[in-house]
Design goal:
- A hairpin with a 2-residue loop joins β3 and β4 (about 50).
- By secondary structure, the protein is mainly beta.
- The protein is built from no helices and 16 strands.
Length: about 200
């Protein structure tokens, strides 16, 4: 999180079209005083035929490690998602085949360095039901919603700001909202136009 001498708090709740909380939505705030996100390392596991976590948020320049925890091979692919950042390049496309784990050894691992902001759809050529998402953000003020559909931001610079909400099943990108950050907390509720599918546990 980026600190500011004069800053405010923002809470955003994302709801589906039936009014229920939506976890794993990406909430991005663009304040009038922008701050670039810092590159970091992240790990996405392939476990029980799923990508874990379902949605991973990183900054450009981050190194993402894919680790196969299943006992069978996965052939991972990453392609630009349909609802990408408007006007942004198509981001990082990649493929990798990861060997399955054995009783004596962990499964295959491979790293990808992402450079361009935008959403990347993750899949597996061998297992068509596998879906995951990598969101490469262009703002330091980016969070995923929790189980209650809420993202809580502290220390956002005061003044005019824009709010963007992204969800992989919201195929038409939602319009950005104008915010005014001040001393009083900002509370926003953002509805999607879809009901996301529930992920199996």
């Amino acid at each position: 999180m980026v600190a500011s001498v004069t800053a405010g708090n923002v809470q955003v709740q994302v709801l589906d079209k039936e009014g229920r909380p939506v976890p794993d939505a990406v909430v991005v705030v663009y304040p009038s005083t922008p701050a670039a996100p810092v590159a970091s390392n992240a790990t996405i596991g392939q476990q029980r035929m799923r990508f874990v976590p379902l949605v991973t948020v990183v900054a450009p320049g981050s190194r993402v490690r894919f680790t196969n925890l299943d006992r069978w091979d996965h052939h991972i692919r990453g392609t630009a998602a349909v609802n990408n950042v408007p006007g942004a390049p198509l981001g990082t496309n990649f493929e990798m085949r990861l060997a399955g784990a054995t009783a004596d050894a962990t499964g295959g691992e491979a790293d990808v360095v992402v450079q361009e902001p935008g959403a990347v759809l993750l899949g597996c050529h061998l297992h068509g039901s596998m879906r995951g998402h990598l969101f490469v953000t262009d703002s330091a003020y980016t969070l995923k919603t929790d189980a209650d559909g809420i993202a809580r931001f502290d220390q956002i610079p005061e003044g005019a700001a824009q709010l963007r909400v992204w969800h992989p099943e919201q195929l038409v990108d939602l319009p950005r909202r104008a915010l005014q950050i001040g001393a009083a907390p900002v509370l926003e509720s953002v509805p999607l136009s879809v009901v996301p599918r529930r992920r199996r546990s």
